[in-house]
From TrEMBL, chains A, B:
InterPro entries: GHMP_kinase_C_dom (IPR013750), GHMP_kinase_C_sf (IPR036554), GHMP_kinase_N_dom (IPR006204), Homoserine_kinase (IPR000870), Ribosomal_Su5_D2-typ_SF (IPR020568), Ribsml_uS5_D2-typ_fold_subgr (IPR014721). The gene is thrB. One of its GO terms (biological process) is threonine biosynthetic process. It is found in: Cytoplasm. It comes from the Bacteria. The keyword Lipoprotein does not apply. Keywords: Amino-acid biosynthesis, ATP-binding, Cytoplasm, Kinase, Nucleotide-binding, Threonine biosynthesis, Transferase. GO terms for molecular function: ATP binding; homoserine kinase activity. This is Homoserine kinase. Residues 70-148 form the GHMP kinase N-terminal domain.
């Protein structure tokens, strides 16, 4: 039996504009590197390769909690040791905790000869999100494990639908400000107008059709959010100006990644995505806020086995 | 120039379960027959072939109002005479008024050498719906003109997306009760819970993906409506029992057609659709309510030129 594996666990964009809580996509960059080893005793060890202090108790760790759930299912005297090279900054809004959780379970499953389905891995990994944010959501885990664009039709019972898409360039900017997921959740209105919901589901239907029909214009027209973005964007300085500048630069559209503060934009051409990146940089340079940008593409594979 | 045309204007199902106000489909049966003649004077005449009394003023008629709009665009000394053989019962919930409006404009456009796009025809035909119900909606007109399954991503501006679908059998029952569209609109809650809206858009996304991916199971799983059906179904006696019996008979799913009282069910196989029809008949026979049923398929063509 194989004993060790090294994997890349990528960043993801959840809450794809109108697709709040249901649509996400997987990125090529940034990604974490994780080394996972099979142990011959019932034990989970998680360590940071970067000297980042992690909780001793694996149940309190984003990678550890999912592995404990997996061990419960197995009832065998085995365990896993995990070393995480963290490259996706926690709190950036591109699925840092999901990458740890999803990477851990995909690596462990590989070491076990792929006994579990991707859906089962999502179920395990959701326990990592519960540790990270208090909520067992699958918004980032699903695209991280499945790759590409994913729809969560239903969370209870879990019903995941992988969606094909045409090639797209994704430009992401992470302004160095803090948006707490709990705050981003708290400011949402729990009651909405039916007429606004109808606009939203028209756009969701259009976006899904645009992906499946490889219709870039339809994707662009459907990247509208009448409900969540108007509320959440007030937590992100410069959001409206940045969005307008990116559309001006030729982006199809985009919005807040997850609950922010990162913002993503989709483009048909690489050159456009580069202009979008320049437009993003200018906005935050002018605002005097530090940032990182990524110019990447949709990762159709998800967590990737690098060695072992 | 061709002077006369005879067309078939089919029934349609709007508000496709979770796709309230955005998704519709076109049926092969029932359909109206319309005979339209080009006149050499600026005049619209609409007559019923069945002796049904129609308003003298064409502006007050479902077929006449759209043709008046078309004439405004043309600014030529021409007009149209229309004879309608009505087979789709008004008030049944399968787009009777839309068939008159859509049939009139498609026939007229044919006589004019197809000068107008399908989108423009929808815009004209919406004036017929305004006459019929007071609201310029396109829910039934769009599938009637485009055929197949149609998405209205946005109504202002009008953005229509035709969706492919796998072959489906459609069983429709029209119980002989009256549900006024105005009542069906009035009882809807204008405020809804965000969490319910999220369930709804998961299902809409799933339904669109199911149609485009030819995934019957996904179509079936997505045919759920958490918002409109629970409210509107109370206007239709026997609805819950009928739906349960149809699912039991093997239907993928279905719901209220338009604002009712007709109910439709989708099935993968013709034999199943027949069992569904039997189940429907039993429910309304037991309730002592008269009914008509139709066992038909999706009409991918829409309004059809029969002669001329």
């Amino acid at each position: 039996m194989q004993k060790k594996v090294k994997i890349a666990a990528p960043a993801t964009v959840a809450n794809l504009v109108c697709g709040f809580d249901i649509l996400g996509l997987c990125l090529h960059d940034p990604y974490d590197i994780m080394e996972v080893e099979l142990l011959q005793e019932k034990k989970i060890i998680v360590k940071s390769a970067d000297g980042y202090p992690l909780p001793e108790d694996p149940a309190l760790n984003t990678a550890g909690a999912p592995l404990l759930e997996m061990l419960k299912e197995l009832d065998e005297p085995i365990g896993f040791s995990v070393i995480i090279h963290k490259r996706i900054k926690p709190g950036s809004g591109v699925g840092s905790s999901a990458a740890s959780a999803a990477g851990a379970v995909v690596a462990a499953n590989h070491l076990l000869g792929n006994r579990f389905s991707k859906e089962e891995l999502v179920q395990f990994a959701m326990f990592g999100e519960k540790v990270a944010s208090g909520v067992k959501h699958a918004d980032n885990i699903t695209p991280c494990i499945f790759g590409g664009v994913t729809l969560i039709r239903s969370i209870f019972p879990l019903d995941i639908v992988p969606l094909s898409s045409p090639p797209l360039y994704v430009t992401v900017i992470h302004p160095q400000i803090e948006v707490k997921t709990a705050d981003a959740r708290a400011i949402l209105k729990q009651q909405i107008q039916l007429k606004d919901a109808i606009k939203q589901w028209g756009n969701i239907a259009g976006l899904v059709a645009g992906f499946l029909k490889n219709d870039y214009d339809l994707i662009g027209r459907s990247l509208e959010d009448h409900l969540i973005e108007p509320v959440r964007s007030i937590l992100i300085p410069g959001f409206d100006d940045l969005k307008a500048a990116c559309k001006q630069a030729g982006a199809l559209g985009g919005g807040i990644s997850g609950s922010g503060p990162s913002i993503f934009m989709l483009s048909k051409e690489k050159a456009t995505a580069g202009k979008v990146e320049d437009a993003m940089k200018k906005i935050y340079t002018d605002l005097g806020i530090d940032f990182h940008t990524y110019l990447t593409t949709i990762n159709t594979e998800g967590v990737k086995i690098l060695e072992g």
